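W.,

You were right to be curious about this one. When I first looked at the sequence I had no strong expectations either way, so I just let the prediction run and decided to look at it fresh. Below is the sequence, 70 residues in total, followed by the output.
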Amino acid sequence: NVRAVPTTCLKMAGARASVFILDGPSVKETPVALGLSGIHEAEILSGLTEGQSVIVNPSPSLATGQKVKP
């Protein structure tokens, strides 16, 4: 199984990548290891498990623990 997310989900800090996932009523920033990446999608090698909901187009001000409405 290959896990991929839209590149708009990624938060990059230098060479480090992370995504925001839903954690109950709030969000959690989760580091991920990237594989192949294209213009629209990036392969996730580790850091996500099947069934986790990833935030698409997160606001730059989004932070771990912030409450969100699904």
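Here's what jumped out at me. The longest strand covers residues 26-37. And, maybe more interesting for your project: The beta strands are 3-6, 11-13, 16-23, 26-37, 41-46.

Coffee later to discuss?

I.
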